[in-house]
Design brief:
Elements: H1 12-20, E1 30-33, E2 36-39, H2 45-62, E3 66-70, E4 86-90, E5 106-113, H3 117-131, E6 135-140, E7 145-150, E8 153-158, E9 162-163, E10 173-174, H4 175-179
Parallel strand pairs: 5-6
Antiparallel strand pairs: 1-2, 3-4, 4-5, 6-7, 7-8, 9-10
């Protein structure tokens, strides 16, 4: 009888043990998606500038209302701990020092896509929504639009339009301010 090899899925705990054990270097850009360690695409200048704009915009607008977490992990399941470009989180006095944030803590996740748009839309967005994240934005830099995903579906916003996150009804963000 022939036996077919089965890939090993890593849990979040195993993934962090690998990090502590030195499997990943300090500068390695990896994340755990559905039990697989995925190498993230390099960050280009346009991507970095967009993340910087979003960070400034959200920190100023949400000052004492939320934590704006930049390129930090969000534990979405036993098997996945992605690192979205921006996570807007419920305000907590410890700023999530005691444990990683989880979907119940998330008000909004944002992925900035210069080259990773198809992957973000087909893999990461469904992962986030299935975990209960209320809304995900994919900033499509080449297309100069923001795709907004939530339980109601997907809609697209372009320059001249604004977006109000589901979890932050007092916040209106101009797409032009995101794209620069």
């Amino acid at each position: 009888m022939a036996v077919r090899p089965v890939p090993h899925r890593f849990s979040v705990a195993e993934y962090y043990q690998m990090g502590v054990g030195g499997v990943f270097g300090e500068d390695d850009r990896v994340e755990l998606i559905d039990g697989e360690v995925m190498e993230m695409t390099p960050i280009g200048a346009r991507h970095a500038a967009c993340v910087n704009r979003l960070t400034r915009l959200l920190v100023v607008a949400l000052a004492d209302q939320a934590v704006v977490s930049v390129q930090n992990p969000v534990r979405v399941s036993h098997w996945s701990v992605p690192q979205p470009d921006i996570a807007v989180l419920r305000l907590r006095p410890d700023f999530y020092a005691e444990k990683l944030c989880e979907p119940a803590d998330v008000l909004l996740l944002i992925e900035v896509a210069e080259t990773s748009g198809a992957y973000d839309r087909s893999v990461k967005v469904p992962l986030y929504l299935a975990a209960g994240v209320p809304q995900v934005w994919v900033v499509d830099l080449p297309g100069e639009v923001v795709d907004v995903f939530d339980v109601a579906g997907r809609f697209r916003r372009g320059t001249g339009e604004t977006i109000t996150p589901v979890g932050l009804p007092d916040l209106a963000v101009e797409v032009a301010a995101i794209l620069g």
